[in-house]
Amino acid sequence: MQQINRTEISTLGEFGLIKRLTTGIEPVHPETRYGIGDDAAVLSYPDKPVLVTTDLLMEGIHFDLQYTPLKHLGYKAAIINFSDIYAMNGTPKQMTVSIAISKRFCVEDMEELYAGIRLACRAYNVDLVGGDTAPSVTGLAISITCIGEAEPGRVVYRNGARTTDLICVSGDLGAAYMGLQLLEREKAVFRGKQEIDPDFSGKEYILERQLKPEARKDIVAALAQAGIKPTAMMDISDGLSSELMHICSQSNTGCRIYEDRLPIDYQTAVMAEEFNMNVTTCALNGGEDYELLFTVPLVLHEKIQDMSGVKEIGYITEPELGRALITRDGQELELKAQGWNPLKETS
Question: pTM of the full predicted structure?
Answer without folding.
Answer: 0.90
